[in-house]
Amino acid sequence: VDAESQGNESLETMGAGAPCAPARPRASWRGLALPVAVFACMAVLVVAAGLLVYRDQAAKVRAEKGRELAAIRDLKAAEISRWMAAQMTSAKAAGDDPVLSGAVKLWTSSGAAPPAPFVVRSLIDTTRVGQGYLGVLLLDQTLRVIYVTPGGGPPPGAVTRALGKKAMDRRQVEFSDIYVDAQGRPSMEFLAPLTGGAPASSSPPGVLALEVDPDAFLFPLLNSWPAISRTGETLLVERRGDQVVFLTTTRERRADALHLAFPVTRTEIPAVKAARGAVGVVTGIDYSGTEVLAAIGPVRGTPWFLVSKVDVAEVDAPLHSLALLTIVIVLAVTVLGGAVLLFFWNSWRARDFQQLYETERELRASEERFTLAFEHAPVGISFTLPDGRVGHTNATLAEMLGRSVAELQGLTVAEITHPDDRAETARLMQATLSGEMDGFKVDKRYLRKDGSGIWTTASVTLLRDGQSRPVNFVAMISDISAGKAAEDALRASEARFRGLFETALIGFALHEIVLDEAGLPADYVYVAVNQAFTDLTGLDAAGVVGRRASEVFAGLPEPPYLAIYGETARGGPPHRFETYFEPLHRHYDIQVFSPQAGQFATVFIDITARKEAEDARREAERELAGMNVELERRVLERTLELEAANAELEAFSYSVSHDLRAPLRALDGFSLALIDDYGEQLDDTATDYLARVRAASQRMGQLIDDLLKLSRVSRREMVREQVDLTALAREVLADLREAEPTRVVNGHVEDGLVAGGDPALLRVVLQNLLANAWKFTSRKQEARIEVGAERRDGVTAYFVRDDGAGFDSTYVDKLFTPFQRLHTAGEFPGTGVGLATVKRIVRRHGGSVWAESVVDSGATFYFTLD
Amino acid sequence: MAEERLILLVEDNDDDVQLTLRALKLNHVANRVDVARDGAEALDYLFCRGAYADRDPKVLPQVVLLDLKLPKVAGMEVLEQIRQEPRTKRLPVVILTSSNVESDLAKSYDLGANSYIRKPVDFTQFMDAVNSLGLYWLVLNEQAPSAES
Which of A195, A517, A811, B11 would you label with B90, given CA atoms 20 to 30 Å apart? Predict the structure, then answer.
């Protein structure tokens, strides 16, 4: 069909464009009315069908996306419900812990004086760590906070207290809405009454406020989108009075959690619709003013509503290509139909033009053939006027001369001829004009635009008119520069070869083979050698020419390479080989050929330097490869050893933590039993001995714990992040203060101490240094502990300074060695592991640690981090 | 209350058994304490099989004090089996161990332990912990509802 319509198009063009076309077809334009009408009907039908298909597809796309959004909404709602249920269960489990409830009851009944008992602290701390709460507060029946972890947070708000009361009254877990806490973070609390899991026989002794971080699970869950979408977003909203509040942070943080709210009357917003209880898939305008498609619905078990939405623009995006495709198809069908109609109409009309067309085509074809031949001839062709001005030329010639056809027009022959050939060319042209000859053929150089000459063979003929007047020179010009260049190259190569040979660096020798009685090669005689032979072998020409090889190299069992030379000399193929020639201690690359029967010539160079370099390189490579293999083997061995040692150490420390402590418990426990049960039968010395046994076992227990900590510090995987040392130091100081509330200690921590490092390990560093400062100031009525940083040698050195007992700086080297102490356990308790731990951590961070002190004037511990 | 209130102590170290019994006694807890020396014995006891086949299955201890490092069947596994059996799944279990490895603590809670007490070397601290256990379970508390009710 294509070919046909193409043919008809060109026919149509010709008919319209030919000036001599007969005027007859005018009437036939009326005949066009029918095909045009048919075409219009067809076009309308095709466009209508296209529209229908597009609409149907668009509806399907929307419906499909709606189902997808509803599925996402249901999935997320179910996940949030599950998360809520899990949080409620965890909170209930914490409140149901009978041990905690019992311990709190016991403690509060005696006035709940701080510090909190060991059991209460340990249970609440493990609950916090185990369940990942941000913080846990313990409130007693009067809603007073009696224990909080971690320390230093703000006091509980009115909401917390009200819910705590409600939880205790109803004996069930209550939860707060997501709200913005004192630090500006979204937060949520679960209030678990300490029922101890028992039925309502007695009122709970207190309530736990468990603070959950929605950023840890809830918000990430909402922000994750199961399919790839540019604008897809899930929002959690809630109705608070006549406002609908967005509980979550919106996409790209255009609004933080709880900072976005709309009145309930704005029903065009899907979130508002959701909060008013609507369920389903809706379109509307979202908070940012964009038109969106949204699936909305409630979250079971919560007061919240979910909105899963995506921009309508994104939903409709695939429709753009669909629309484009539809338009293309409609156009294609229309055009094709039009073309078919046109074909039938034209084939009827074309009969009238057939004759004219045939004639015209013949003429054109003939002209085209000539033009084709002229333009594509492999030789350059020029038409030149008798006065020497160049007329028409073909592209081949123009290309040959590095000019365009237009540029050549009007130049003279002299201008495009090489200066050396101008006179000859002018003479030949003149001779032709005068009638001496009809034309000529000459090898001449033309002049290229860039000024270089180009060798050509030019055949020139003079055309004359009927009266024998000259009309045009026609020149056929072929490029023979390649042949000329080859000739030049050959000449140059010969010259080079001769030069090379005369001053040859290559050794050359001609020999005559000597045969034995059996006709086999036995020896050879040197016939001629060149200077390089002497240079390369050290053998003087006079000393070898005319002599046998067996004489020249008398020390050898047979003449050198006789087998190879003999074969070549007796009609065998030429050879080439590299060899080490022992008598001269040189390497040679030798070629041998036979210039005539019974003779052979050797051409050789000395390759000793290259060979030696190659040998040296090979040797070096072999050595290196050997070293690499050895290195890899050692690395592997070391890695395996290290892994085994680590595993062993792990098992060892686990066993130490379990088994080594058990006997100590027995020592301590049974000593106490002796004192308690048989105290009256023991004198003071015996009681003192038992007290010493107890002190020793407890000290060893402490030692084991510290050692395990030290080893954990070394094995732990490090993470690196920005750590707020100021906050960390203040927390540690608060813990110390809580453990010994009677001490008077002025703690001063510099603001804005930030360092890069592992937060858990840096906490251990500060715990050890601050605990030391706390301990060594214990003799003072009023102590001062300072944490800060200063520049030392261009590095930030953090320090912990106290005004306590200090130490004799003579022994400063011993401070950081495990089990080395500068004070007796009687003066100040301790195991001597703490500073060793600090040193190890600081070392792992690439820093260093040191101390400065004067006895009785306090001590300062510095550390740097990489 | 006619019904006797039992404590099941699962502990392989005889010293620790004696010290625990002493701590209970000093806290005026006069209840009977049955001792299982390994994990397998503890499970036999609770599920009334093997050497304990003729034990009355209706009588369950008030609380199980469970060590983690035990011969034959480890403490974690004992806890897991207690939580899988409908009859014992609500039985209060307190982990009583030397370990302060964080993974042990987390795993115990994951498997449904009610409490986790680390046995300190200092006996007075140990007394403090046992004190809370005894007071609660055996003096203050009502019987926890059984799973069937």
Answer: B11
Q: Do B128 and A117 touch (CB under 8 A)?
A: yes
Q: Tokens representing A253?
A: 């943080």
Residue A788: closest CA among A862, A865, A866: A862
Dist. CA A494–CA A616, nearest whole Å: 39
Determine, for residues B106 and A122 on separate chains, whether the beta-carbon distance falls below 8 Å: no
The CA distance from B43 to the nearest CA of chain A, in Å, is 22
Tell me whether strands A380-384 and A470-479 are parallel, antiparallel or unpaired.
antiparallel
Is there a contact between B106 and A130 if contact means CB atoms under 8 Å apart? Answer: yes
* pLDDT tens per residue, range A692-728: 898 888 888 888 887 777 777 777 777 888 999 999 9
Write out chain A residues lying below 8 Å of B128, CB-based. Answer: 117-119
From chain B residues 127-146, the ones with a CB under 8 A of any chain A CB are 128-129, 131-133, 135-137, 140-142, 144-145
Calculate Rg over the CA atoms of chain A.
53
Spatial separation of the C-alpha atoms in residues A309 and A198, rounded to whole Å: 46
Residue B53 Cα, gap to closest chain A Cα (Å): 30
- Which sign, positive or negative, has the C-alpha torsion A484, A485, A489, A495? positive
- Chain A: residue nearest B136 by CA? A102
Is the Cβ–Cβ distance between A508 and A533 less than 8 Å?
A: yes
- Average of per-residue pLDDT across A451-480: 86
Query: Distance from B39 to chain A by nearest Cα, in Å?
Result: 17
Mutate which of B64, B68, B98 to test chain A, going by most A C-beta atoms within 10 A?
B98
Chain-wide mean pLDDT for chain A?
Answer: 83
A798, pLDDT greater than 90: yes
Task: Report the percentage of chain B scoring pLDDT > 70.
Answer: 85
% of chain A at pLDDT higher than 70: 92
Q: How high is the pLDDT of residue A19?
A: 41
The shortest CB-CB distance from A99 to any of B105, B114, B118 is to B114
**Residues of chain A positioned with their CB less than 8 A from the CB of B11:** none
Residue B143: is its pLDDT beyond 50?
no
CA distance to partner chain A, nearest, from residue B109 (Å): 7
Contact of A564 with A575, CB cutoff 8 Å: yes
Rounded to a whole number of angstroms, the distance between the first and last alpha carbons of chain A is 79
Name the pTM for this structure.
0.37
Q: Which of A34, A461, A78, A551 is nearest to A300 (CA)?
A: A78
Tell me which of A190 and A828 has the higher pLDDT.
A190
* Nearest CA-CA distance, residue B51 and chain A, Å: 28
pLDDT tens digits along A339-352: 888 887 777 766 66
Rounded CA gap, B9 and B20, in Å?
A: 9
DSSP letters, B74-115, are -HHHHHHHHHHSTTTTT--EEEEES---HHHHHHHHHTT-SE
d(CA A165, CA A707): 46
Yes or no, beta carbons of A669 and B126 under 8 Å apart:
yes
Give the integer Cα–Cα distance in Å for A193 and A204: 6
Residue numbers of B between 27 and 66 with CB closer than 8 Å to A: none
Q: Of A122, A162, A168, A121, which is closest to residue A141 (Cα–Cα)?
A: A168
One-letter amino acid at B38 equals D
- Tell if the CB–CB gap between B115 and A664 is shorter than 8 Å: no
Nearest to B14 by CA among A700, A674, A666: A666
Q: Quick check: B21 contacting A, CB < 8 Å?
A: no
Say how far apart CA A134 and CA A155 lie, in whole Å. Answer: 14
Closest CB from B105, B120, B124 relative to A126 = B105
Bridge partners for A297 per DSSP: A306
In this predicted model, what pLDDT tens digit does every residue of A40-98 receive, in sequence order? 888 888 888 888 888 888 888 888 888 888 888 888 888 888 888 888 888 888 888 88
Query: What is the distance in angstroms between the Cα of B49 and the nearest Cα belonging to chain A?
Result: 29
